[in-house]
Write a structure and sequence with these properties.
Elements lengths: L1 E14 L2 E9 L4 E2 L2 E3 L6 H13 L4 E2 L5 E7 L2 E11 L12 E8 H7 L3 H15 L6 H17 L2 E7 L12 H10 L4 E4 L2 E2 L7 H22 L2 E8 L8 E4 L3 H8 L6 H7 L6 E4 L17 E6 L8 H10 L5 E4 L13 E5 L6 H10 L2 E5 L3 E3 L2
Parallel strand pairs: 1-7, 9-10, 10-12, 11-12, 14-15, 15-16
Antiparallel strand pairs: 1-2, 1-4, 2-3, 2-8, 5-7, 6-7, 9-17, 12-13, 13-14, 17-18, 18-19
């Protein structure tokens, strides 16, 4: 994987006795801290010092003991940004006109408010805590967190698996539809979404393929009704053009027949020509190896927590990808295929109420009124 490293610093001053931070505004209107690419054999501190000088004409002094990193996905790899803490004396900053609109010195709260990116806000919070000696959480704080978690679990009691495969429709799965439903019933789930692989096949007509595809879902539905667990219909579709996978929630037999015709045409044609106003279109495991970059504007959301144990889905990078591209609809799924390896129930969403049908599930996802769960009882706010 391609990796790019940049270095910079949170630069601060005490002005009239108050702590203030140097905030630069790029020509694109993005607020943050001075930073830039490492060159040649530079050390991290040398790069940070050079970039600060080039952008602000300040010669800074670094504080010992502070170093933090920020990661974000870029096309074909990952960008790593190292930040230090720095200050200076008896100088006036001058913005580099080709790169900066302005330089501002702001108090902590104002700086935190003006910075747009959450990952840059985090850097400022860490720097401010270092400078001010912010206290560690007390036992009372920990008890408050535990109470908040208990309240969230009570308010969102229904666990729904969003990504599960059954055999034989998904040839990579080792569990039948009946076994999937029994497994999730034992785990206390309220529902399972069957998202079998939906791919183009030359040996079957559209009608035959969709009927065959739906057979596993119907078997799951029947057994779910018998034992008391709901099942929703989904699909994990793959276009002929590459190995990217996309999850569709809010789908029925008619739509599957129509979607099937688009698989040879590719993602762009499908999203341009086929309207799904009552569905959601999610990219599955977008940072897994072998996945090709796409235009994120084609997506309704991203599966950030794909918990398949045999694949590295780089879940933190997937989460950053969603954040960087303004994608607020994020999901979690076990990508369940294999029994007996703690693969089942590795992720879920938690809902306050059960969706009445497949399209109500899509509406729930669009509302973003749910929690993410990983590892059975580890809560993540979407």
């Amino acid at each position: 994987m391609y990796k790019e490293t940049s270095c910079g610093a949170v630069v601060y001053q005490k002005i009239d006795g108050a702590l203030k931070y140097l905030i630069i505004e790029s020509v694109k209107g993005v607020f943050g801290f001075p930073k830039g690419h490492m060159e040649g054999t530079e050390t991290e501190h040398e790069t940070a010092a050079r970039e600060i000088w080039e952008e602000t004409r300040l010669r800074v002094r670094f504080l010992d003991g502070f170093r933090t990193e920020d990661y974000r996905p870029v096309a074909g790899g990952m960008k790593n940004i190292v930040y230090f803490l720095a200050t200076y004396e008896d100088q006036t900053p001058v913005p580099l006109e080709t790169e900066l609109r302005s330089i501002r010195f702001l108090p902590y709260e104002e700086a935190l408010e003006i910075i747009q990116l959450d990952r840059v806000k985090r850097v400022l919070r860490e720097a401010h805590a270092f400078l001010t000696g912010a206290a560690a959480p007390t036992q009372g704080t920990i008890q408050t967190i535990a109470s908040a978690k208990a309240a969230l679990l009570a308010a969102y009691p229904h666990r729904i698996e969003l990504h599960a495969h059954t055999s034989p429709v998904s040839p990579c799965s080792e569990v039948t539809a009946r076994e999937v439903m029994e497994t999730y019933y034992r785990l206390g789930y309220s529902a399972v979404t069957i998202t079998n692989h939906f791919t183009h096949r030359e040996d079957m007509t559209t009608e035959d393929y969709v009927d065959w595809y739906l057979a596993d879902f119907e078997a799951a539905r029947r057994h779910g009704e018998e034992i008391g667990i709901r099942v929703y219909l989904g699909a994990e579709i793959r276009f002929d053009e590459n190995h990217n996978d996309y999850l569709i929630y809010g789908v029925d037999a008619r739509m599957l027949r129509e979607i099937y015709a688009y698989l040879p045409q590719g993602l762009n044609a499908f999203r341009r020509k086929y309207a799904m106003p009552d569905s959601v279109f999610i990219q599955a495991h977008p940072m897994r190896g072998g996945i090709e970059p796409i235009d994120p504007a084609l997506l309704d959301g991203v599966e950030v927590f794909n918990m398949h144990p045999n694949h590295n889905s780089r879940v933190s990078i997937a989460s950053l990808y969603a954040q960087e591209n303004g994608i607020s609809l994020v999901t979690a799924g076990s990508d369940f295929h294999h029994p007996g390896v703690n693969h089942e129930g590795a992720a879920a969403i938690r809902a306050a109420a059960m969706p009445a049908d497949d399209f109500a599930l899509a509406a729930l996802l669009r509302s973003r009124n749910y929690l993410l769960e990983t590892g059975r009882d580890r809560i993540v706010l979407p």
